[in-house]
Design brief:
Layout (H helix, E strand, L loop, with lengths): L1 H25 L4 E8 L8 E7 L9 H7 L5 E4 L10 H12 L4 E3 L9 H11 L2 E2 L3 E6 L5 E6 L10 H5 L8 E4 L17 E4 L19 E5 L2 E5 L18 E8 L6
Parallel strand pairs: 1-12, 2-3, 3-4, 4-5, 7-8, 8-9, 9-11
Antiparallel strand pairs: 2-12, 6-7, 10-11
Helix pairs in contact: 3-4
Length: about 260
C-alpha cells in the first residue's frame, strides 16, 4: 500500500508539472522577429513592419506584447479568430483597442469569428478596422509606389474568393495575402504573383506529443514563388493548454532586395 501511494504521488507530481508547463505555453507572450526580402517590394518603402497576430480566441492581449511592438510596427494584421462563441463584446472591443494603439488594423475572418459574427461585424465597423473579405487595399510609400494587401474570407466557409480580391489590384508587383486558413495557398497560381501569405488557424497542432500533432507546427514554407507564413497563434481552443507549440505573435520586417543596389 505504501509503494502504491508513493507511485501515485510521483505520477500526480509529474502530471501536475506537465499541466503547469502546458498552461504556461498556452499563455506565453512571445513576439518573434522575422525578416523577409522581396525584389518586387519597391525600394522607396525602405522597410515595412507588420505586427501579425492570429487566433486570439479567449485571450486578452497582454501589456508585455504591447510593450514589445509599440512604436515598431507600421500596421497590424489580425489573421482571423479574434473571438469565438462565449467571448464578450467588451473583450473583443478591448483587444481591438489595444491593437489600434500599435497601428492601423486590418482583419480577415476566421471560422470561429462567425460564431459571434453579428456583434463582431458591428464592432469592426464602429472601430474603423479595415476588413479584408475577398478584397484588397493599396499601401503607398512616400514616393507614391504601392504594394497590395489582400484578404480572403475563411476557407472553410466556401466563400474564399481570391480572384475577387485581386480585381482592384491591377498590375501592382508586390502582394501580400492574408488568409486565416493556410490551405488557401494551394489555390494560388503563379500568374497571380502573390509573394507572401500570412495565416494561422492550425495553432501549430496546439498539443504535440513526441513532435507530432493534428497540424504542422507553425513556420515558413514555400510553394513555387509564394512564401507561406503560418503562426501557432496567440490563444487556444477547447482547453487552455499547449504542448510543443507555444503561443506566439510576430513582428515581420519586409525589405526590398533592390535596396543598396547601384
Amino acid at each position: 500500500m505504501g509503494t502504491f501511494l508513493i507511485i501515485a504521488a510521483v505520477f500526480l507530481i509529474i502530471f501536475g508539472l506537465l499541466g503547469l508547463h502546458m498552461y504556461r505555453e498556452a499563455h506565453a507572450d512571445r513576439t518573434i522577429l522575422h525578416d523577409f526580402s522581396f525584389p518586387e517590394l519597391p525600394s522607396s518603402f525602405g522597410t515595412v513592419k507588420i505586427f501579425f497576430i492570429s487566433d486570439l480566441h479567449r485571450r486578452i492581449i497582454s501589456e508585455t506584447v504591447l510593450h514589445n511592438v509599440k512604436g515598431k510596427a507600421d500596421l497590424v494584421v489580425i489573421g482571423g479568430d479574434l473571438a469565438e462563441k462565449g467571448v464578450k463584446r467588451s473583450q473583443m472591443e478591448e483587444n481591438l483597442s489595444r491593437l489600434q494603439s500599435i497601428g492601423p488594423v486590418y482583419f480577415v475572418w476566421g471560422n470561429n469569428d462567425y460564431e459571434v459574427s453579428t456583434e463582431l461585424d458591428e464592432l469592426l465597423d464602429e472601430k474603423g478596422v479595415k476588413v479584408l473579405k475577398n478584397s484588397a487595399v493599396k499601401i503607398k510609400s512616400k514616393d507614391g509606389d504601392e504594394f497590395a494587401l489582400l484578404g480572403v474570407d475563411d476557407f472553410m466557409t466556401g466563400e474564399c474568393n481570391l480572384d475577387e480580391a485581386l480585381q482592384s489590384v491591377g498590375d501592382i508587383a508586390f502582394k501580400i495575402l492574408i488568409s486565416h486558413n493556410p490551405d488557401a495557398v494551394y489555390s494560388i497560381t503563379a500568374e497571380q504573383q502573390i509573394q507572401l501569405v500570412l495565416s494561422g488557424h492550425t495553432h501549430g497542432g496546439q498539443i504535440r506529443l513526441f513532435g507530432y500533432g493534428p497540424y504542422e507546427l507553425g513556420g515558413i514554407r514555400h510553394k513555387e514563388n509564394t512564401t507561406l507564413f503560418v503562426s501557432n497563434g496567440y490563444g487556444t481552443t477547447a482547453l487552455p493548454f499547449r504542448l510543443g507549440a507555444p503561443a506566439e505573435t510576430h513582428l515581420i520586417t519586409l525589405t526590398s532586395t533592390s535596396i543598396g543596389r547601384d
